[in-house]
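User: Can you help me understand a structure? I only have the sequence.
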Amino acid sequence: MIGIFDSGIGGLTVARELMRQIPEAGIIYFGDTARYPYGNKSKQTIERYALQDAHFLISQGAKIIVVACNTASALAIDALQAEISLPLFEVITPAVEKAVRVTASKNVGVIGTRGTVNSSIYASKIHDIDPQIKVASQACPLFVPLVEEGWLRRPETKKIVRAYLAPLKAQGIDTLILGCTHYPLLKSQIQEKIGRRVKLVDSAEEVVSRIVEYIKNNPAIKNQITGQSRFYLSDVSSHTEGIASKWLGRAVKFEQAVVE
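Assistant: Let's start by predicting it. Here is the structure, written out as tokens:
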């Protein structure tokens, strides 16, 4: 089984991509909706939550762990790597490497939560590869609640997308990293407002491609990742199930889970 955790249901974009690229895989999903969002919490708190989330997935039979939360990937990955012995994938590094490959003007934009943007993790990792790349970052704190409310195509959402992206558009970026797993659900609106010439980097697509590569190179794990998919939240509501089912294109029944 492949375990995925996020602060909410945005990590279902990773689950959706896993279903597309590795349809035989069983998924154990945990969204920490009772403690969401992670983006405005301290590093210490995020580390504690991330470790609890990972251990829950392991207790349910996960053999691979995917940190689908950009904030946890930015602030808790060292703590996770120190304690978790299973294959561990985070969403930042694959997106960074893709952005570095595709930018032509060496002018990259990043959008994410306040926690992710304030960590400067994307700029740091990009500059580790190519110090000449200019990185412009923009926190978009309203995107996550808009997505989880299901307001994907509301006029208000389009106006907010335009307002957040205006500073990046003015700087002439040619590549934009969607630095939160919720954001691919706003991809069409983001592409429209930032311009068709700007390449969008979807962290969900990139991390799943990395998992596909890992499985190809480690065929023995194939038999360990099959099974019946299960979806857990720390706070379950019928509204969330409706939104999730729409995103995944299939009925989703969430189970209540307590992590500690």
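Now, to help you interpret it: The mean pLDDT is 91. Strands lie at 2-6, 27-31, 64-67, 88-90, 107-112, 134-139, 175-178, 199-202, 230-233, 254-256. Let me know which part you'd like to focus on.
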